[in-house]
Amino acid sequence: xxxxxxxxxxxxxxxxxGIDALGAMAQGLFCSxxxxxxxxxxxxxxxxxxxxxxxxxxxxxxxxAMAVAIGYALKADPVVLFSLTGVGWAANALxxxxxxxxxxxxxxxxxxxxxxxxxxTKVDILVTPAVTVFAGVGLASLIAPxxxxxxxxxxxxxxxxxxxxxxxMGIVVSVLxxxxxxxxxxxxxxxxxxxxxxxxxGAAVAGCCAQMVGFAVMSFKENGWGGLxxxxxxxxxxxxxxxxxxxxxxxxxxxxxxxTGPIATCVxxxxxxxxxxxxxxxxxxxxxxxGVWTGWLSPSADALEKGWIAITPTGSDWLGLALxxxxxxxxLSWVFCQACRRAGWIKEGDLLxxx
Length: 355
Hints:
The protein is mainly α. It has 2 domains: 2-152, no CATH class; 165-342, no CATH class. The chain is globular and about 65 Å long. The protein has helices at 2-7, 14-46, 49-60, 62-73, 78-95, 99-117, 124-164, 166-182, 187-194, 198-218, 220-232, 240-245, 251-267, 287-297, 301-305, 315-342.
């Protein structure tokens, strides 16, 4: 059996399913739901119907995009990969608010089932897609609705808890989602699966920005402008090899997130009511900030369901967005980093990105 699974390139491991597949799913989300939301919002604000249509088409394909991305991460054969489009659509549609989470589980199982039979018969073009689609859609019918209900309920708990305890939940959500963003897992996929919007979404944005902007600024001495851009609007995950070598370099941006989170929830009432996936994106392509902006003008279905409404942003809202997402993460992380350097916890070269 081990030899058979090895030949089929099936690796039952936390890395393959919890890191590779989850990270790929986030890319699928970005290339469909996120970019679709951006186009649709621009089209609505500029009164350009073509952009609205482009955005809606991309938005509607989020399920298939996630499933195909997951199949790619699983190194599925082409026939299995293409068969996952219908599986992704079914899982996302039946999963409701927990659609992305349902897609993750179901696409993994369906993809691995397809890989088991791929190229094992003379009628592979019939057998492989039949097994993949039947397993995926059948499983989606059984477990996607319960997954959606559970994810939605948990998201509501986080949302309500943040409303009731904005200070403490602001810290918890900001720190945990920010850490998830830097780890080789997908904070975007986690936020999408939980439907994280409102104040909780604002705290998540704050935490992600603290990690990205924080690492970009505090490592400027070692990495220059290239490092500033690649981490500030790319990903702080680039620092993971350095974190493994010296975990103390993680202290400054994490402390910064513990401060900016409650500032977002308690001081500026910062809400992220756009697509939930934006809550876990931080300053990556400025998707987090675009999500806040779109949520102000036209809240997503997830936000409306939780009782959040559209607002007309004031100067205070824009100031809060700028301070929480850019200014405070940069200043706080730099200050904490200098303290760590003086204490000898962070040394020259500890933040140098691998070439």
